[in-house]
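ugh ok so i messed up the first submission bc i forgot one of the chains. this is the corrected input, ALL of the components this time, i swear. 784 residues overall. if the numbers dont match what u have on ur side tell me asap before i send this to the collaborators (the ones from the other lab, u know who)
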Amino acid sequence: MLVPGQLNPSPRVLLGPGPSDVHPRVLTAMATPLIGHLDPQFLAIMNETQEMLRAVFQTANHLTFPVSATGSAGMETCVVNLIEPGDRMVVCVKGVFGQRMTDVAQRAGAAVTTIERPWGEVFELDPLRDVLKKVRPKVLGIVHAETSTGAWQPAEELGRLCHELDTLLLLDTVTSLGGVPVAIDDWGVDAVYSGTQKCLSCPPGLSPVSFSPRAVETINRRKTKVQSWYLDMTMVQRYWGEERFYHHTAPITMIYALRESLRLVLEEGLPARWARHMKNHQALKAGLAALRITYAAAEGRQLPMLNAVRIPAGVNDLATRKRLLDEFGIEIGGGLGDFKGKAWRIGLMGYSSRPNNVLVFLAALEQGLAAQGVKIEMGAGVTAANRIYAGG
Amino acid sequence: MLVPGQLNPSPRVLLGPGPSDVHPRVLTAMATPLIGHLDPQFLAIMNETQEMLRAVFQTANHLTFPVSATGSAGMETCVVNLIEPGDRMVVCVKGVFGQRMTDVAQRAGAAVTTIERPWGEVFELDPLRDVLKKVRPKVLGIVHAETSTGAWQPAEELGRLCHELDTLLLLDTVTSLGGVPVAIDDWGVDAVYSGTQKCLSCPPGLSPVSFSPRAVETINRRKTKVQSWYLDMTMVQRYWGEERFYHHTAPITMIYALRESLRLVLEEGLPARWARHMKNHQALKAGLAALRITYAAAEGRQLPMLNAVRIPAGVNDLATRKRLLDEFGIEIGGGLGDFKGKAWRIGLMGYSSRPNNVLVFLAALEQGLAAQGVKIEMGAGVTAANRIYAGG
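and heres the new structure output, hopefully the right one now
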C-alpha cells in the first residue's frame, strides 16, 4: 500500500468539551524514551504520580492511581468493582453522562433506580434523601460536572447524606478535576473517576481514580469476581500498591504525560488554578452576554470550564462551527443528546483557559455571526470580556 | 506537597518481553499538538491508521482498529463481544496468557473447556480437532506467540479446522504482530488482538484488533448486551466506522504514535521486517549456545522476538538482571508463572531487534556470568553471534 505521509495536522485551539490544549512541557515529556513498567525508575515515577494525584483529588486514599484507559473506563472501573449482580444502585441523570452510568451499572447487573432532572439543572439534597431512604442502595452515582449541559452539581453534602444511609458515594469528576474544587476526603466521596484530557490538560488515555478505605473494603469483601479482568481492582491494586505485582503493561508514555501535567497543576497551585478558570469564565460570559447569548444551566450552577450556551435563533449551528474551525482553527463542541443542534459547548479547560483564547474566540464568533446577518454590535463581546480582565 | 522534579530517567535498552525501544520518529510524533477526536483531520488520521493496520494484519476486515487500552483489554474486547453467557469456549493453555484468556472468558459467562500443553510446547492439530468435535464450542481461543514461554504456535491451519466445526477462531498476536508472519485472512482468523509495545515498537496503551465479517455478524446478532460498555463493539464500531459517532474520547496522542510506528513497519516492508527479526534471533541464539544457554521452547518452535532461555545452573537470576540494568541499562525479563526464577526472556522486538543490541547484550551477559564465577569462554558468545552477521 501507499504509506501515508508524515503527521502534519494544522494547529487547533481546543475550546470544546475536551481534549483541551496540552502544555508544551507535557508534549515534550512524551518524547522521553521508554523504560520498563517494572523498572525501579518507573516504580518511583508511579509513586510520584500517585502522590500528586492524591494532592489534586485532596485525598489520603491509598488506592489512587490512573486506570489504563480513558474516562469512560474509569466510570466502568468504579461501577464494576463496587457492584455485584443484584446490588441496588441509584443513578442521578441530568445529561448524557448520567445516562451512560445507568447503562454501565445495568450491564454490571445492578438493580438501577434512576432519578432525573431536566437537562441543565442539578439535584437538591431533600429529594435525593427521599429516594435513598426508599431504595436503600449500595451505591449512589452522580456527575459533578455534567459535560453535556454545563451544569455544576453541588457535591459538598452528598457524602454525609449517603453515609447516613449506609450508601457509597460514586462521583464523576471527569470535567471538574483541576478546574473547580474537588475535595474527596472532606466531601466523603467513596469512589471517584476523572479524565486526563479536560482540566488536567494531558492527552486522553488515562482515567485517574480513587477509592476510600470503605470502598476498598467493599471490593475486597466481594463474593463474586469482578466481571472485567482488565479493570479488576482486586488485582490492579497489587500493581499500583506495594507489591508492584505485574497485571498488565502500564501505558508508560501516558503516565509520563500525566506526571508532567500534575506537576504543572501543583506548581500553579489548586486555588490559583480554580481562580484562573473562574476569571476566564467570567470574561467569556460577559462577552457572550453582550452578544445576547445565554447559558443552558441556571445562574449559580454554571461550570466555569464548560460553557454550554443556547445557539441564538436564526444561527446556523454547523456553519458557525465550521467557520470557527476553518478560519481560526478554533474547535468548540456541538450539543449532545437533548441539546443536539440547540447548544454549543465552549470549553476553557486547563491550558486552554487563557485570556488569549477568550478574546480571539469572541472576536471570531462575532465575525461568524455578522457574516450570517445576525444583528450584533461588532466588538461588543470582545470589549465586555476585556473589561472584566481590565477590572482586575 | 513538594512537587517532584523534571522527568529524567536514565536511558535503557529494552530487551525484555515488552515494551520495546521506541523509534525516535514515534517519540517525536507524540509531541505533536492535539486535535479533537471528531476533527475532520483526525478522522483522516483514523482512516490512515486503520488502512495501515489492515496491511500489517494482512486482512480486508472492515472492523480493524486500535482498542483504547493495552493488549489485555484487546483480549477482553474479543472475548466479551463474541461470548454470551452460557456459550461454550475452548481455550488452549500453554503459558500465562492462555491462563489469562480462560479467566477472562469465565468472567464473561462462557462455559470454558481448557486444554493444556506443558510450558514451552505448542498444540498439534489432531488433538485440537478431537476436542472441538467433542465440545463444539462457539469460540476457540489460542495464543500465537506465548510471551511467557517463547513458544511459537503454528496458526496457518487453525481457521480451516475451526470453520469445519462452525467454531470462531480467536488468535492472540500481542507479541507476534510485526515480528513474524501474521495473515488474518489467509489463516481464517475471526477475531485477533495485538499490542503496540512489542514488535510495532510503539508505547503501550493501545490494542489493535480485527474482526472477520463472520465475527461481526455474530456480534450484531447478540441477544444480550456486551457486559462492558467501554469495549462494546456494537457501539465502538460506529465511531471507527463510517458514522464517526461519538462513543468515548479517542486517545489521540497514542493514535499519532501508532500511525507513525505503522508507517515505519510498512516503509521497511513486512518480509524485510520478519527477516530482520529472524536474523537477530539467529545471532543471539548462536551467541547463547556458545555460552551453553538453551531455549525453553523446542527447536523449530522458538519465537525470534521473544527468546525464553533456561537460567544456567548456579547462576543468580536477580543478581544477573540487576547487573545488566545497573551497569548497562539493559532490561531483560524474568520468568513468569511456572518459569519464575527458571527462565530469562530476552526480547528482540521491533526497533530493539538490532545487531548492536545483540552484541552488547551478549558481552554484558558474559561479563555478568564471569563475575559470578560461571565457567564460560569470555568472548565466545559475542564471536558466535558476530559470525552469523558476517556470514551474511
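quick check: The first helix of chain B runs from residue 24 to 29. that seems consistent at least. The longest strand of chain B covers residues 88-93.
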